[in-house]
Each structure stands twice: as C-alpha cells, then as structure tokens.
Amino acid sequence: MHSGVDEDADDENEGDHDEGHDAAIHVLRLLVDETAATPLRMSVSCRSGADVTTFQAETSLISERLILSPLRPEDAEEMVDVLADETLHEYIDGHPLTFDELRARYRELAAGSSRPDEIWLNWIVRRRSDARALGTVQATITGDDAMRTAFVAWVIGVSWQRNGYASEAARALVMWLRKHGVREIIAHVHPDNRASAIVAARAGLEPTGDEADGEQVWRTAVPPPTMV
Length: 228
Ligand SMILES: CC(C)(COP(=O)(O)OP(=O)(O)OC[C@H]1O[C@@H](n2cnc3c(N)ncnc32)[C@H](O)[C@@H]1OP(=O)(O)O)[C@@H](O)C(=O)NCCC(=O)NCCS
Fold this sequence. Notes:
Helix content: 25-40%
Distance between the termini: 32 Å
Bound molecules: coenzyme A
Number of domains: 1
Shape: globular
CATH topology: Aminopeptidase
C-alpha cells in the first residue's frame, strides 16, 4: 500500500530518518499516516495514452531539509502565526487572516475544488529536523488528459526566509508534478518580486513575455509530444 510519502525527490537522504530527532519524526509520521487515510486519486494520461500515472493528493513530498505535508484544517493553528506578517502580501493579494478565517480557508482548500476539471493541491512546508511549519506551496491543476497544466505558488514565513527553503520546496513540487505527467507548470510572479523570480528559476521555470493581471508569466518548457 502507498505510504503517502514520495521520497524519490531525495533518495540519498533516506537514512536521515534513523538519526535522532525521534520526536519530530514521530510527528511527521503522524502527519503522513493521517493524510494517507483519505486518498484522492485521479488518472492522468500522457498524449500517447501509453503512460498512465496517478495523482495522490495525500502524498507528502520529501527533500533534503523539508517535508511537504498535505494541508489540513488543523494546520491553521500553527500557520496563523507563520503567515501573520503584512509584508508577505507586498506582491500577492490579501492580508493576514485571523485564526478563524484561516481555518475556514483551510477547510475549503482541504475539501478540494468542486470543478471536475480542476484539482487543488496544497502542502504545508515543514522542516524535517523538528517538524516546524515554515510556509506553504500549492498547485492548481487544470486541463484534460491530453494536456495538464499546474499553476504553482509558494509562501515562506518571514522568520524563515532567505534560507533557501522556498527554492527547495518549489523544486520538490515541480519535480513531483513533472514525474506525474503534468507537462506545463506556470507561476505568475510580480515583476518586482525578485525573491519569487529566483525561486521560480531554481525550480526550472523560465520567464516569458506574457503577463497576467500585472504579473509576469513563468513556465516550464513544454517537452515535444511523444511520437506514437
Ligand atoms: C518568495 C518567497 C517565497 C521566497 O522565500 P525564501 O524561502 O526566502 O526563498 P529562498 O530562500 O529560496 O530565496 C530565493 C532567493 O531570493 C532571495 N531573496 C529572498 N528574499 C528576498 C528579498 N526580500 N529581496 C530580494 N531577494 C530576496 C534570496 O536571498 C535567495 O537568493 P540567494 O540564494 O541568491 O541569496 C518569500 O519571500 C515569500 O513568501 N514572499 C511572500 C509571498 C510571495 O510573494 N510568494 C510568491 C508568489 S508567486
């Protein structure tokens, strides 16, 4: 049975699980076990129809220092402080939410999109060493079997910024999406948001000349269609 953890992004670090930090790992295991109990699956076919893979919204992604665990409504308790700073909204819409507002929002996100052609995937970015929540990453997947597109975004709490966490989390997310057959990955980045542009580039996205609501469109290069 699937463990709910996708460790392929960081195979060389698997041994870290056994080296101390027992309490933190126990918390991480609980997070993984809880989320693994409620699978949300969908099939994604590549253009050739030959390669069918499966999305699992409950999957935790592991990188060198981070675990991305699927967002749950109860994460609002920890995240309300992580996201409390107004400066996080310098280049993105909104403002810091109260605990009640954030929990209501997380309930909506965890319930998923009501549209059959759209999937919402949201993860809490946690430090593996102590399970500390640092931020979030998200992917909204649209399209049909012939061409899936993921719109991605990232936020790291001010206290943990400039440690490479967003770059590491975004790389793990983009690798996972590509591995699962998403051919086009897009981020909308405000032209003055230098940090986010660096994160997008490190995740393998490239700036385009396109603009959406005043933001620059960054996207992965689309690989050529598979020859049948
Ligand atoms: C964008 C964001 C996620 C980056 O998080 P982070 O964990 O600090 O990112 P990283 O540590 O991976 O840093 C990426 C690069 O940006 C640089 N950087 C970070 N903050 C910066 C800032 N305020 N101004 C300029 N550069 C900055 C880092 O120094 C790093 O470059 P370096 O490795 O050459 O030093 C974070 O600033 C944030 O949450 N911003 C608010 C939300 C947001 O705008 N999200 C983007 C939506 S598209």
